[in-house]
Design goal:
Strand content: 35-45%
Oligomer: single chain
Largest sheet: 8 strands, antiparallel
Shape: globular
Order of helices and strands: EEHHHEEEEEEHHEEEE
């Protein structure tokens, strides 16, 4: 390669490896369905520069590895499975410098009939997507992050937006009480992976989203802005889960505007707080990343 050039990034792997794992414990079965991406970076570039394939671990072999490790070790969580795969690629192949694994889960939940959980029947329930990514360099610790993606939520009160900048560009009135709807996406990074109960972390984050968005079932929780709701969620996550180093949250607005019915006398009221028009574009998009200071004590 010309001395004036250098690699910025390179790697190859298998995308969209679909797998369903069934754990059978007598009559009770448990399923995990994932879509897995793998990517490897080798310590040589001769496959690129000279067409020499002698070091390439074929992408088909990477696909087969997903199935073989699932068979031999089982699947408990996307995080544990990602770590298993990345560790395998680095320990099996000494010429692999970096292994990256992405996992997306398919959200199945057990069917409940007359208050009883079914032994072996499940319902596809796409309320939220559970994802994770692990990147590990040879000689380094695995860098792991989990994603909570696409959780659409709405509440009909306990939300306001007032006292924002008023100038010649403003047309939006103060809203003392409004519908708050969004699609929550959160990603968090771990400062360690050993001894972490990833399933517990996932359930804790779900509960925190409910707590900071919805609040108690009878009275809810007041939100003066999307920004404040995001911060309260991030702050709570860092406080209760010391294994997390930072949290990124994005909450785009899903607007619902009151329909103007004032021109229709048969409605009987000039105030409409029951009929709304869903509007998805344009939409506000609010995001933030909150992390621990480098010298903070866990």
């Amino acid at each position: 390669m010309d001395e004036n050039y250098e690699w910025v990034e390179r790697g190859y792997g298998k995308n969209s490896v679909k797998i369903l794992h069934v754990r059978r414990e007598g009559p009770v079965h448990t399923i995990k369905e994932y879509e897995v991406n793998t990517q490897l970076t080798l310590n040589t570039d001769k496959d690129y520069t000279h067409g020499d394939n002698s070091d390439i671990i074929a992408t088909d072999s990477q696909k087969n590895t997903v199935y073989i490790l699932a068979k031999n070790h089982g699947i408990t969580s996307p995080e544990d499975f990602s770590l298993l795969l990345s560790s395998h690629f680095l320990s099996k192949y000494s010429h692999v410098d970096r292994a990256k694994v992405d996992v997306e889960t398919y959200p199945w939940r057990r069917i409940v009939m007359e208050g009883k959980a079914h032994n072996h029947a499940f319902l596809f329930s796409p309320e939220v997507q559970h994802t994770c990514t692990v990147t590990q360099y040879r000689g380094g610790k695995p860098l792991l992050s989990t994603g909570l993606v696409g959780m659409r939520v709405l509440k009909t009160t306990q939300s306001a937006f007032v006292n924002f900048v008023s100038d010649e560009f403003r047309s939006l009135p103060d809203m003392e009480d409004r519908i708050f709807s969004t699609v929550v996406t959160a990603y968090w990074e771990y400062n360690r992976v050993d001894g972490v109960d990833f399933g517990k972390v996932w359930m804790t984050m779900l509960k925190l989203v409910y707590d900071k968005f919805a609040g108690p079932p009878d009275i809810g929780i007041f939100s003066p802005s999307v920004q404040n709701t995001i911060f309260l969620l991030q702050e709570a996550a860092l406080k209760v889960m010391p294994e997390i180093s930072k949290v990124q949250v994005t909450m785009p607005n899903k607007h619902y505007y009151s329909v103007d019915l004032s021109k229709f006398p048969e409605v009987g009221s000039s105030v409409n707080n029951e009929v709304f028009l869903p509007t998805d574009k344009p939409a506000g998009n609010i995001t933030a990343v909150l992390g621990r200071k480098v010298n903070s004590k866990l």
